């Protein structure tokens, strides 16, 4: 073997056999001189290289290998006049190293990169992917020699052989548009398939005396060079197989032939560097979609045990061929698959991976190029089957239900104003949703994607401060959307702190208008009305004519939308106790005697209050202490005729007495009988010189407040138990024992029903003449 004929695999890297490095590693003191002594002759820049290798081994010495990596004869030095006939058949002489003469001055070691240092350690035994046709041996003589050896020799691996490694087999595919006179855009893309085979050279063997033979078969074959088709004989370490595939995989073997004397090549036993396969993917893959189902077909290749199909939505961030994305076996057949997608209207990606069996092991090929399919979507409007509000004991909430559509997702917008109704007419681009004033202003949404046809139920907190919520479902399918009909929810506040004001002949109820209410529903015993806020403001409240014997007023805030009422949770109820009305008359008799008659308006009174007649010499008295009390005596005395300013008759007749010619009138209970004479008094008017008279209800109970003006108006509410005093028979107050019923309304004490004096026609006779006969 002529070492001087070898050339390095890479610039600056000597092509040294591994056994040389083994000897260097075994040195006790690997100095540069000791390393240089191990070099064969002909090594370029031997001293500089020895310096680098000595530096590498300093500080870390690998253990001595058990055996040499490759059993080769020791290198020899041949004389210039030696002939091939002299050496033919002769034994190789012992190796005599001939180091280069020592230079006059020590050489500076060349700078060597880390990669070059690794190459030195590996002896430069690396493969090259560069293919040089000059390395090919195409003469028929080589094919004849190897064909003969294929049938004549045993191919067992020699003892001591350590292969530099199995060949690397790489399937490569390129796709380009077809170019012809009709234009590439109208043509199917053209796919070019090839296989690149690379291998590492035999360590320490020169390229000039080493040949590599690539054998291929379209199925699994035995480890014999004659078991397949010879593709190339080359001195290089790479070859590209451009033959179109005819099966699911191709079996490749690389065999090595090396010699020191040319006759050795004829009888050389080939050495198997290794084997591997190239797995070809399915071809002519076609995808079609209908009704949400993607169907895929391909041309099956013999040798494929099965084909795995993977899918994911476009934009999936992980590996498309991850196990989680693989279709189930029932969906995939030998040359096709059928996949019904979860959500229609999206773009899906598919890739296929073939599986083959080789040497008793299942092998998987590389995934095919990604195929995309836009799945059609029957976008449609979604109807909310339930839209209601409730209180869970902590807060107000909204419950929504709908049926999941066949495609896409559903997003329910909660807004306080209605969206543009034109959005509901047809499907729109998804981006138009953000342009709607209602949708773009809200942060309240509910979104869900569920199985088509299933019932979806979602809840949300009622937005704080809102009294009206528009719940609008939107079906979104990728970049399209269709807005459904809105359902309107109302939240009506309860009516708080109403105030009932007595206006003698009618009543007025006032309150703060409750939030969310369009009108107030008002119900009494004999009346029912609905009052909107405009009418309420115009008349200053709710004006009513309640029953004087007592009444109940129910106030219910109501919101109205599309003919449907939404009422407040709790109506407000006011118990009106009624109003006892009294009137009187002053009549001047023939003997100049003034007679006072008092009666109860509407009905007789069996529990009449005390009265007092007041005189003021200058003006009309305004309240009970605004003048002097006038003494009177009973017109129809019972017992001694007492004169007093306290006018009290326990039973007062009604006005019917004065229209019934003095006949008795009976209380509704049938227990009280009174006449006009029973409620008449002689007025002591002897000392009057003009002035004014006026009758007031008098409270004789010292524990009750004094009364004021006769026509003063009391007021009360469900939240207050105190009332202003006026011309009444007592203070109106809530019962301290049972003041509030279960519905929140106030109840009133029976004896506290207020009373008022109505002067009516007598008002023109309240002024007394200053001289002459009175009235």
UniProtKB/TrEMBL annotation:
SaeA second Fn3-like domain ranges (all copies): 283-368
Coiled coil: none
Residues covered by the SaeA first Fn3-like domain: 190-275
Organism, as annotated: Corynebacterium terpenotabidum Y-11
Region described as Disordered: spans on this chain: 61-110
Domain annotation SaeA third Fn3-like: ranges: 394-486
Amino acid composition bias (Pro residues), ranges on this chain: 96-106
SaeA fourth Fn3-like domain ranges (all copies): 496-572
Regions of compositional bias (Low complexity) in chain numbering: 66-80
Name this protein carries in UniProt: Putative cell surface glycoprotein
Pfam families: Fn3_SaeA_2nd, Fn3_SaeA_3rd, Fn3_SaeA_4th, Fn3_SaeA_5th, Fn3_SaeA_6th
Domain SaeA fifth Fn3-like: 583-710
């Amino acid at each position: 073997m002529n070492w001087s004929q070898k050339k390095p695999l890479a610039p600056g890297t000597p092509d040294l056999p591994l056994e040389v490095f083994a000897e260097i590693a075994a040195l006790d003191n690997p100095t540069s001189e000791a390393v240089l002594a191990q070099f064969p002759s002909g090594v370029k820049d031997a001293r500089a290289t020895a310096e680098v290798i000595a530096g590498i081994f300093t500080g870390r010495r690998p253990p001595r290998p058990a055996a040499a990596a490759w059993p080769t004869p020791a290198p020899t030095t041949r004389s210039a006049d030696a002939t091939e006939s002299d050496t033919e058949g002769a034994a190789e002489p012992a190796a005599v190293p001939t180091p280069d003469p020592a230079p006059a001055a020590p050489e500076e070691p060349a700078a060597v990169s880390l990669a070059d240092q690794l190459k030195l350690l590996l002896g430069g035994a690396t493969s090259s992917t560069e293919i040089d046709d000059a390395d090919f041996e195409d003469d028929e003589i080589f094919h004849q020699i190897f064909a003969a050896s294929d049938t004549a020799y045993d191919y067992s691996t020699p003892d001591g052989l350590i292969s530099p490694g199995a060949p690397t087999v790489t399937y490569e595919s390129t796709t380009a548009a077809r170019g012809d006179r009709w234009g590439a855009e109208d043509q199917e893309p053209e796919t070019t398939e090839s296989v690149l085979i690379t291998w590492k050279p035999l360590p320490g063997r020169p390229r000039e005396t080493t040949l590599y033979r690539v054998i291929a078969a379209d199925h699994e074959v035995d480890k014999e060079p004659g078991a397949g088709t010879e593709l190339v004989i080359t001195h290089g370490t790479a070859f590209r197989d451009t033959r179109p595939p005819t099966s699911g995989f191709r079996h490749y073997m690389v065999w090595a032939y090396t010699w020191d004397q040319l006759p050795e090549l004829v009888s050389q036993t080939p050495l198997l560097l290794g084997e591997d396969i190239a797995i070809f993917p399915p071809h002519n893959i076609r995808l079609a979609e209908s009704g949400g189902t993607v169907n895929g077909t391909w041309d099956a290749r013999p040798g494929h045990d099965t084909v795995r199909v993977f899918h994911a939505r476009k934009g999936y961030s992980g590996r498309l061929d991850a196990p989680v994305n693989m279709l189930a076996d029932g969906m995939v057949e030998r040359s096709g698959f059928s996949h019904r997608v979860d959500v229609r209207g999206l773009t899906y990606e598919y890739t296929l991976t073939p599986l083959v069996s080789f040497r008793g092991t299942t092998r998987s090929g590389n995934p095919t190029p990604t195929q995309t399919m836009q799945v059609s979507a029957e976008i449609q409007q979604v109807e909310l089957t339930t839209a209601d509000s409730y209180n869970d004991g902590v807060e107000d909430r909204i419950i929504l239900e709908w049926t999941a559509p066949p495609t896409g997702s559903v997003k329910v917008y909660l807004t306080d104003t209605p969206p543009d109704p034109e959005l509901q007419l047809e499907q729109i681009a998804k981006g138009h949703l953000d342009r709607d004033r209602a949708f773009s202003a809200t942060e309240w949404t509910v979104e869900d994607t569920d199985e088509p046809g299933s019932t979806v139920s979602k809840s949300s907190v009622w937005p704080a401060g809102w009294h009206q919520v528009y719940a609008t479902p939107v079906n979104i399918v990728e970049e399209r959307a269709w807005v459904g009909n809105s359902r309107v929810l109302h939240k009506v506040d309860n009516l708080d702190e109403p105030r009932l004001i007595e206006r003698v002949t009618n009543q007025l109820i006032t309150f703060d208008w409750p939030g969310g209410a369009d009108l107030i529903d008002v119900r009494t015993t004999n009346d029912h009305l609905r009052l909107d806020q405009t009418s309420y403001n115009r008349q200053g409240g709710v004006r009513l004519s309640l029953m004087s014997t007592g009444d109940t007023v129910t106030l219910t805030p109501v919101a109205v939308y599309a003919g449907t009422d939404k009422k407040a949770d709790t109506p407000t109820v006011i118990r009106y106790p009624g109003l006892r009305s009294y009137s009187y008359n002053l009549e001047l008799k023939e003997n100049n005697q003034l007679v006072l008659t008092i009666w109860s308006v509407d009905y007789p009174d069996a529990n009449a209050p005390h009265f007092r007649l007041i005189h003021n010499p200058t003006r009309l008295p305004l309240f009970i202490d605004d003048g002097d009390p006038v003494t009177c005596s009973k017109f129809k005395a019972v017992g001694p005729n007492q004169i007093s300013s306290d006018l009290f008759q326990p039973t007062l007749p009604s006005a019917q007495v004065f229209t019934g010619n003095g006949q008795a009138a009976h209380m509704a209970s049938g227990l009280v009988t009174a006449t006009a004479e029973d409620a008449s008094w002689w007025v002591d008017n002897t000392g009057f010189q003009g002035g004014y008279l006026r009758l007031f209800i008098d409270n004789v109970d010292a524990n009750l407040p004094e009364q004021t003006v006769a026509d003063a108006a009391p007021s009360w509410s469900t939240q207050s138990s105190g009332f202003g005093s006026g011309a009444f028979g007592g203070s109106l107050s809530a019962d301290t024992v049972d003041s509030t019923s279960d519905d929140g309304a106030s109840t009133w004490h029976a004896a506290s029903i207020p009373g008022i004096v109505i002067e009516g026609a007598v008002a023109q006779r309240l002024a007394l003449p200053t001289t002459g006969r009175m009235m």
